[in-house]
Amino acid sequence: MTLFRNFFTVGYLTFISRIFGFIRDVLIASIVGAGFVADAFFVAFKLPNLFRRLFAEGAFNAAFIPVLSNEIKRAGKDAAIQFSSRVVSVLFWFLLLLVIIFEIFMPFFMHFLAPGFVEDPEKFDLAVKFTRITFPYILFISLVSLQAGLLNTFNHFAAAAATPILLNLSLIFFLTVLFEYFPDAGYALSWGVFAAGIIQLLWMSSALNLKSLNLKLFTPKLTVAIKKLLKLFMPAALGAGVYQINLLVDIILASTLSTGSISYLYFADRVSQLPIGVIGVALGTALLPLLSRYLKERKYSQALRSQNQAIEISLLFSFPASVALIILSEFIVITLFQRGAFTEFESQQTAKALIAFSSGLPAYILIKVLVPGFFAREDTKTPVKIAVVAMILNLILNLILMIPLAHVGLALATALSSWVNALALFYLLKIKGYLKIDKLIKSRVLKIIFSTIVLAIFLIFSEHHLDAFTTFSLSLKILSICTIIFASLLIYFFIIHVLGAAKINIIWKSKGKKLA
To answer: What string of H, E and C letters represents the secondary structure of 277-321?
Structure first.
């Protein structure tokens, strides 16, 4: 039950973070809307946020944790801390140089990040100013990610999982309490991102001190272990971060579409990130150290069982989440965002993008769960080959679908290419012998699919009774959505339990055990 316990630890804190994230986005939608200021900020936020997700939710730890686990087994805890300090030193000086270069040449880079802004000098200038403020966050969050990887390897998950909460709280604070001290909301949000990086770094440094895992800053030196880490990291960045890179491509292409397109994609992505974060990121974060440890100890049957468990859990939660977001998309967007500067038109456009993103939700989560199966074995080449194919496919589909479907086509291309990515990872894990699917798992998956179909029927039936939804008060909207979701979950998990796809009492007991 170690995987379950760690999954619930990370998942619970990620869920809390997503709730604060929704509060943040509700404020942004209400105050900023989906105009050119919002588009400029979301471009400025996308690049550091891309690094945050790549580092904190995938690529860096995918390379760092297996190497760190090997150092622990080879020479013990002190050697692992020494190795981590060396990595921090190399990372710090490299990223500091990167930040300085981008700060100086930001207008040049903005031509590539948002080519569509060039025709609107005011929007382009704002995007440059906002990005110069937010870009140093890359330095902070990369160091935070390394600290998180060290803690996770020693089976301490809570502190690292709580760091995104600090980002959301910082943005909320700057957008509400400190808003009057800035020219507009875009500046307030940008400085909120900058401040969050410092706060998160201090938070994780304190957590390391409490666990006696203090890191030091040395003169950069490329040791054998660090060279091995760097060799693993570059393909890992592409393999684990393909979804985020696809989203960045979406933003670049969306900048060439009508004003608001970037904002529609941002808000739709934010809603879909709740299940991705709570399920996919939580499972991937908990699974990688576990697989690495089992493989180093030659406990191959336990590694295989943990991988299968992760796949089952991902499907158990992602199928119903995908169906619910598709069927209730417009109601969810209206409830969360439609007020102030965010009108009914913006809600409709965002809901369409949410439907497209949500169609790929199980694939996004499966990628998070399947990639550690390769990385734990220090096989970064296979995922990167698949990722390259998926990215090329995403770009081709973007160019084809954005013509008739505008921003919705970009979201749909991301979903379709992610399915190709996930299925290819699954197939190659089986071919390489890293994954074995028995009859029991196949039977459970079929039961999960059947239960999801029943859930969909209930949601469609419930949707027909919400004709006057837009006239409801905010409290009634929230109550209606929560009631439908709660009732649908009860029905879904009741069927799951009765059919034996998963025993809810076992999952609940594992959650209640002492967290690692």
So the answer is: HHHHHHHHHHHHHHHHHHHHCCCHHHHHHHHHHHHHHHHHHHHHH
pLDDT, tens digit, 9 for 90 and up, residues 301-330: 777 777 888 888 888 889 999 999 999 999
Own/partner contacts of 74-77, CB < 8 Å, gap of 24 or more, are 77/154
Q: What is the mean pLDDT of the chain?
A: 84
CA–CA gap between residue 175 and residue 37 (Å, rounded): 14
Residues 22 and 45: their CA atoms lie apart, in Å, by 16
DSSP 16-72: HHHHHHHHHHHHHHHHTTTSHHHHHHHHHHHHHHHHHHHHHTTHHHHHHHHHHHHHH
User: pTM for this one?
Assistant: 0.74
Instruction: Read off the pLDDT band of 506 (50, 70, 90).
Output: very low
The dihedral formed by the CA atoms of 398, 265, 424 and 400, expressed in degrees to the nearest 10: -10
Q: Which of 95, 170, 88, 183 is nearest to 136 (CA)?
A: 95
Number of H helices, E strands in the chain: 22, 0
Could you please report the per-residue DSSP string of 176-211? HTSGGGSSSHHHHHHHHHHHHHHHHHHHHHHHHHHT
Closest CA to 376 of 272, 291, 298: 291
Per the listing, tokens 């105009």 go with 35
CB atoms within 10 A of CB 98: 14
Q: Return the amino acid letter for 287.
A: L
Residue 40: CB atoms within 10 Å: 28
Please give the backbone phi and psi of residue 434, each rounded to the nearest 5 degrees, phi first. -85, -10
* Maximum Cα–Cα distance across the chain: 66
260: burial class by Cβ within 10 Å (0-12, 13-18, 19+)? buried
Residue located via tokens 């990385």: 375
Name residues whose C-beta falls within 8 Å of residue 446's C-beta, 6 or more positions apart in sequence: none
DSSP 349-366: HHHHHHHHHHTTHHHHHH
Choose the weakest-confidence range: 81-90, 240-249, 271-280.
240-249
CA distances from residue 133 to 106, 126, 196, 219, 397 in whole angstroms, order as listed? 11, 11, 12, 28, 33
CB 283 within 8 A of CB 314: yes
